[in-house]
Amino acid sequence: MAVGNIAVPNTIYPIEGIKLSATAAGVRYKDRDDLVVVEIAETATTALVTTKNTFCAAPVRVLREHFVKASPRYLVTNTGNANAGTGADGKRRAVEICNALADKTGVDVNSILPFSTGVIGEPLNSDAVIAGLDAALANLAADNWLVAANGIRTTDTVPKLASQKIDVDNSSYHITGMSKGSGMIRPNMATMLGYVATDANIAADLLQEMLIAINEQSFNRITVDGDTSTNDCCVLIATGAASSDIIDSSSHPHYQPVFAALTAVFVRLAQLIVRDGEGATKFMTVKVTGGKTTQECCDVAYAVAQSPLVKTAFFASDANWGRILAAVGYAGIEDLDTEQVDVYLDDVMICQNGGVAPDYTEEAGKMVMSRAEITIHIDLSRGDASDTVYTCDLSYDYVKINADYRS
Length: 407
Description:
- The chain has helices at 58-67, 87-105, 126-138, 145-151, 204-216, 255-275, 294-305, 308-315, 322-329, 362-369, 396-403; strands spanning 18-23, 35-40, 45-50, 74-81, 112-119, 160-168, 171-180, 193-198, 233-238, 283-291, 342-345, 348-352, 355-356, 373-379, 385-392.
- With 407 residues, it is of the alpha+beta class.
- It folds into two domains: 18-275, L-amino peptidase D-ALA esterase/amidase (4-Layer Sandwich), CATH 3.60.70; 283-403, Ubiquitin-like (UB roll) (Roll), CATH 3.10.20.
- 51% of the residues are buried.
């Protein structure tokens, strides 16, 4: 059950230079699309971030090799099978898929980036993927974002899409993106899978810098269960169709508004993953202020956001706020003065100077905890740094979904 506003945008802007399709290849699921192809214009620039999990999937290893050799022209994604933990055979199958798509499209094989998501440790039916490529190529269209967003889903209950148009001076820019992910979420470099495109004209080196920076405030600030996937990847594409004027530095007059709009799309996609977290019933924002550094703020935020005890208390609407303090205490800030720490649930102060706030009541705490969307604000009172992490509660359904995942 997804939490809060998870609606598909009323307007999904096509991005000139991008075409998408989805088809049912029968990789794992029956009677649903599980193969997605994205075609990228030859003139586009592309940026990429991938998982830091050292046991990364075979397609991740392949796409890293391809990305440094040629500009991407096609992205091919299968769902239902992660092609991870499959050794040399998995890499061979990923390469076979790339070779087949390169043969069918006439592009350099290094221009093909493969992606997989699903069950880890099972051989990928690459023959099924290859057999589905003709249908996928035949159905490529600029307005297939929703079709593609549905095609990359696994345990996701909803498609995840965001789209914006901005006007800057005499130029109009469009941004559209999709993501997937519901469990095995603490990306640590990228989301489970994320694809964002804009028609802005952005230099390749700058686009990579932008992706890394935006990623740090979006996909790298979410957690469902603290598990970093073997398959996490995120791609940002700039087709350049909107203007011949290249945004080539942060001093360009269009840089900041485009950067802000891209950030908004990324944050929306990242929050959708948390809102659709496996079994989620609560959407929680963990905001840490008053830190000495951004890193210690993130350490505290993630300690709270990933605590099973905190997450289960929120699921039960149990105002057991001592669990929050315990998580702050083991976050690794050795010189933390706990008698300076304040904690709020929304607008209710529950902890002041390291102890129960004088005006706090159990009823007030329980009232906040019963809400579907809650902000936990922790003020460390030791500096000017701050940061925010998004998470969800931990319910019975999370255990059921993951216990039954392969069956």
